[in-house]
Amino acid sequence: MNQTFSESIRRSLPAGLAGQDQPLPGASGAALSPAELAWELQNTLDPTAVLGRFSRVIQMAFPHDGFTYDHPGLRLHVSQGRVSRHSCTYNLALKGLDLGELRLMRGRKFREQDLAQLETMLPGLVFPLRNALLYRQAVEASRTDPLTGVQNRTALEHLLTRELASFERGGEPVALLVVDLDHFKHVNDTLGHSAGDRVLKAVTGCLVGATRASDMVFRSGGEEFVILMRVANPADGVRAAERVRMALEHCAAVQDSAPGHHVTGSIGLAFARRRETALELFDRADKAMYVAKRNGRNRVEVASA
Question: How many domains does the chain have?
Fold first, then answer.
């Protein structure tokens, strides 16, 4: 029994339904075959939009108050409408591909004929949802650094532009940290590139551990990392940058990955200005990082306001 709802029904989508093309019963004026329903959903590759449209299109045939959807593998959660007393849950799959878990909710109990009705409509969802999930997966792969698993320069450009737009609308101040490892070329030259890769992976774990869940860590290329965060004030940003610097200097995993070397990082910190572009903000943080290099490395330098 699900503790959130007084009744929680779990069912599996019957095998073979994806090939059916019969009209949906009992939805006078709104009956759609699975193929027609799939056609209604195919005009977007956004999983959230696909699920929301599915909920709206089936509303006459299968009244419900809201739904939730989860795909842990893609870190995707969607919730629309309101939480209600009763729920039915389906684990969706197509040809062995996990498509996530869909839960629909409403105030009155689900009758067997209601669930049978829903199960004639679900095949119209699976193909558009699969296409949207595969597209999302491809986009995420294009924005992920294959060595470290964090986001790459492409993702940084996209998300930094988004964060600056939020800042312009009155959101929290934005801070950008450019972190460049000191003497990393010497690590590669003496220990080899495999050791260098191990250092980069260890540094990634250190940076993620030294930042908040809401902060975003990127590998922008080579031995350079970028951290994007929202801060309440400049002092908080400086403290965060110093915390990152110290974490690198004292992280056992990082130091153990490069025997005979003391791995540190030089950090440039810049705070977003009004009407500043993403490139302008990055350039200021990058220049501050080079100032940190010139001033002795393993330090934080703040870009001029």
Answer: 2
Identify which of 247, 291, 243, 229 has the alpha carbon closest to the alpha carbon of residue 266. 291
Cα gap 302→305, rounded to integer Å? 9
* Residue 223: active-site member: yes
**What is the pTM (predicted TM-score) of this model?**
0.69
For 159, residues 6+ apart whose C-beta sits below 8 A from its C-beta are 151, 216, 228
In terms of residue numbers, what domain contains 251? 153-302
Q: Going residue by residue through the chain (305 aa), what tens digit of pLDDT does each one get?
A: 233 445 567 776 655 444 444 444 433 335 567 788 888 898 899 999 999 999 999 998 999 999 999 999 888 999 999 999 999 999 999 988 999 999 999 999 999 999 998 998 899 999 999 999 999 989 888 889 999 999 999 999 999 999 999 999 999 999 999 999 999 999 999 999 999 999 999 999 999 999 999 999 999 999 999 999 999 999 999 999 999 999 999 999 999 999 999 999 999 999 999 999 999 999 999 999 999 999 999 999 999 86
Question: Which of 36, 172, 223, 301 is an active site residue?
Answer: 223
In a domain? residue 42: yes
Q: Return the CATH number at 236.
A: 3.30.70.270
- Asked which of 142, 161, 178 is the last residue of a domain, the reply is 142
